[in-house]
Write a structure and sequence with these properties.
globular; mainly alpha; 434 Repressor (Amino-terminal Domain); about 100 residues
Length: about 100
Amino acid sequence: MSTNTVKFLKKITGEELNFANMIHSLRLADEVSQVELADMIGISKGIMCDIEKGRRLPTIDQAKNMAEALGYPVQGFIAILFQDQLKKANLNLTVSLDDAS
């Protein structure tokens, strides 16, 4: 996910970008319901709702599957997921991911 995309999502949500508001905003922009996205990635609507409300973080596989299902780069979803995990652990660190190839 590009820096411009992150800035845009922050602007339209009015909040600091985290996985919950990112996936909610992208899902709505793509006109995909919670049930549809949950079905696309093989999780329950309840789990999808918990992820969007910030009550739980997705697994790496779930974040990857969400990115692929919605047609976005996996790297951005994983970076934001890791950033949320660091914040939850009260670690003042930033995430930068590069392709391993």
